[in-house]
């Protein structure tokens, strides 16, 4: 019997039609092979396309040969492969993008819009509450970040790691986000209206008289404890809901190829949220102008903004539910799914021992320290220029809108940067921008006095100029972070196994993020105590900024090498898994005349050197 190829078996017809019974006896194969050659609609293929095959004509005229579609060797081997000449069905697309991909990207973009809309409102509100409150100032921020925010972040990370071992991913998501939504709603309608009754103002004043003004910052934390709790919860919304919940979910349902294409574009919708939320903050901050005397305009503004935060939070939960129920997960390498679960201490030891995780942590900590070295100094100037809560909040609304516009523009450029220059170059742009703009801000603080006559010609004081330059520094730094730094950081998690991905994100984004900000605050406190004032320490802060950015750039370079290697390894594993799932057995005639499986090169009609194959394996014969 002639050799038959499973995926496109060529059946040579006999010269004598009467020999069909003999042919039937030769085809008395095993049960698994009998039904392989059934095809209701065989597709003809001309004989000349197979250069090495010699066919016996049926009658006086040459006839076409037939391709018969073969069945799979076994059901366990997976779905049948398409026959030769049979194109794989093209997936439906819209605007050049597969529908299945759009079902992921659009809901994720909407989730990011809602999360960042809330974060902008919360970020602007938290600064107004703690900086403009009576008995407080911008000096409270370093103490808050070091002694309140960091311990709460560490506690949350430990709790999250524990919950990740006992809850499903969906239950973990809801268990984390719903307490945030409930707290912000309660703050606007319960805690803030009762703040005059629950804040120990008289006790704090008494302690301040005893201890002196050096303890203004620590005492302010006790004096306005509910505002400080709001501050910490708003900070945790940025590190927990954005970094851990959203990006962890996005990394779970997207591939690296999709991430390179769409992660920068997530920020387009998100930074439209920055623009609109900035306008929202400004609108509610200006409500006081239309209210009568004796009315607490800030309380009314706060209730309205917290209502929006609660509504957006519920929308996030709905979108998460929809994606989990209607969007399929991408296939991952099976090798990376079999890692056993680790306890809390084992997880921490593993994360510390991983160079990849350490480099990622360096990126996050370096960003936190660098931005904090500039931001706290800028906010102290901002309060001096805008002492009223409504004026301060109105300026922050304009600041958020400008940040959204700048980031939107950077997002359009970022996809070109990823496509043209790759991950490594994109990861180095943010530290470079932050260093250059930070040097400009500190230079203005150092040499503002000599520039005062020139600034007066433009109707500005050195203080107002410092406020505007600091705002530009923050706008450019944050736009580079949102458009390049965050997508780079999240792409770096994708090749990791699921356990490292979940716990690594919790450790890096929840702990390292406030650790960086606290580190910057500690550096500032040390400089102030050593040199007497923040102004005197400005040159040294610039030197520290240079060292931090240098370490940041070195970690980015190291991570680029490891990320590229992991990507190649993952692609190789997936190729090997696909190759193992595809089997091409060949049916050949043995000495006894019965069909049996034999090894041999698969028949490729497009190949020009099929004649070099053995005739038993590649050329059909007459029976």
UniProtKB/TrEMBL annotation:
Lipid bilayer topology: Multi-pass membrane protein
A Pfam family it matches: TLC
Transmembrane segments: 105-122, 143-160, 172-192, 224-250, 262-281, 302-323, 360-378, 399-418, 424-447, 454-476, 540-559
Subcellular location(s) of the protein: Membrane; Plastid, Chloroplast membrane
Biased composition (Low complexity): 601-623
Chief place where the protein resides: membrane
UniProt entry keywords in alphabetical sequence: ATP-binding, Chloroplast, Membrane, Nucleotide-binding, Plastid, Transmembrane, Transmembrane helix, Transport
Molecular functions (GO terms): ATP binding; ATP:ADP antiporter activity
GO cellular component terms given for this protein: chloroplast membrane
Residue ranges, annotated region (Disordered): 587-623
Similarity-based family: Belongs to the ADP/ATP translocase tlc family.
PANTHER family linked: ADP,ATP CARRIER PROTEIN 1, CHLOROPLASTIC, PTHR31187
The name this protein goes by in its record: ADP,ATP carrier protein
Organism of derivation: Vigna mungo (Black gram)
